[in-house]
Amino acid sequence: MTRESFSFVVYMIHACANKWGKLPSEVYSILSQADCINKYLVDCYDVLHTQSTNYIVDDIVEYLKNRGIQI
Question: Average pLDDT of 41-67?
Fold first, then answer.
């Protein structure tokens, strides 16, 4: 993970926490369990970091739904 992708992941964890009304630590646990951090946010960083925050948060929700996780 590069410094840029790390900063992006931290930013997205906080963005999700704000939108979902959860603590960042709770969001981190959810995303880690679904392997969303490594398999989605880091792997797709090149494309994702050019998108809006709301778009990515909504996309994360879809990613989690596809894995049977409801927010």
Answer: 97
